[in-house]
């Protein structure tokens, strides 16, 4: 993948911002008075939320910022990550927070994902997540801030997300890659345009569509 600056879109104001600048941008954009989306209801003040920054552990070009109510269980974050980025065929998943593991199907040594965010996280903490213990997609998460006036109750809010990286076909170097070979992807290769996918030595049927996710080209993930 190229060295292009990774850009992303702020969902609160629509601005396109570089990866490194997004955290600071959101700190300003998440002020209740700065955004209509976060307008405070007088009857029912929204529950406080954590602002999380999430990225691929080995693929920093894929990143997002999310707000989740402190009362939400880890399973809610798991569901969100699956829906947005990862779900292909119902694999197991787990969070690693400090010395503890919170798993979708816990073993005797693991905890359940029923734990609430407020019980296991605090601002400044870094933690990890993996989806699928075989062809694992690993994520790094950071608790960026506490949003006192968070999102409407219970809701998970996508604050910002990277724009799809532009990768050119590794065979012809001309066309943009729209397909990825699941065999070659193991070695960071196999990005192909339509024409080159048809001619690819592993076979056209090994190719998946290129999608904007750290799980691109893995297992059966098609977005
Ligand atoms: Zn913004
Ligand atoms: Zn799968
Ligand atoms: Zn090509
Ligand atoms: Zn291949």
Describe the structure.
The protein is 15% helix and 29% strand. The protein is α+β, with helices and mostly antiparallel strands and 223 residues long. A ten-stranded mixed beta sheet has the order 2-1-10-4-3-9-8-5-6-7, sandwiched between helices. A three-stranded antiparallel beta sheet has the order 12-11-13. The longest helix has 13 residues, at 74-86. The chain starts with 6 loop residues before the first strand and ends in a 14-residue tail after the last strand. One zinc ion is lined by residues 181, 183-184, 190, 200, 202, 206.
Low-pLDDT windows of residues = none
Q: What's the helix count?
A: 4
Beta-strand content bin = 25-35%
CATH-defined superfamily of the largest domain: MM3350-like
Instruction: Please estimate the helix content.
Output: 10-25%
SSE inventory with pairings:
Blueprint: E1 7-10, E2 16-18, H1 19-29, E3 49-56, E4 63-69, H2 74-86, E5 93-97, E6 100-103, E7 111-112, H3 117-120, E8 126-131, E9 137-147, E10 157-162, E11 179-181, E12 191-192, H4 194-198, E13 207-209
Parallel strand pairs: 6-7
Antiparallel strand pairs: 1-2, 1-10, 3-4, 3-9, 4-10, 5-6, 5-8, 8-9, 11-12, 11-13
Bound molecules: zinc ion (4 copies).
One zinc ion binds at residues 88-89, 91, 219-220.
Summarize the structure.
This protein is α+β, with helices and mostly antiparallel strands.
């Amino acid at each position: 993948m190229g060295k292009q600056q990774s850009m992303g879109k702020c969902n609160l104001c629509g601005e396109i911002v570089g990866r490194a600048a997004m955290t600071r941008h959101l700190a300003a954009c998440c002020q209740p008075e700065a955004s209509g989306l976060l307008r405070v209801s007088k009857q029912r003040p929204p529950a406080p939320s954590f602002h999380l920054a999430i990225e691929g552990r080995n693929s920093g070009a894929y990143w997002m910022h999310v707000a989740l109510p402190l009362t939400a269980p880890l399973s809610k974050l798991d569901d969100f990550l699956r829906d947005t980025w990862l779900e292909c065929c119902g694999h197991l998943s787990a969070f690693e927070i400090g010395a503890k593991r919170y798993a979708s199907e816990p073993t005797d040594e693991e905890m359940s994902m029923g734990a609430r965010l407020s019980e296991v996280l605090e601002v400044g903490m870094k933690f990890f997540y993996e989806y699928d213990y075989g062809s694992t997609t690993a994520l790094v998460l950071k608790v960026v801030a506490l949003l006192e006036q968070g999102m409407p109750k219970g809701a998970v809010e996508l604050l910002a997300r990277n724009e799809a990286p532009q990768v050119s076909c590794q065979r012809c170097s001309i066309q943009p890659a729209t397909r990825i070979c699941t065999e070659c992807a193991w070695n960071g290769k196999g990005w192909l345009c339509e024409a080159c996918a048809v001619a690819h030595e592993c076979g056209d049927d090994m190719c998946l569509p290129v999608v904007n996710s750290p799980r691109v080209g893995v297992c059966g993930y098609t977005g």
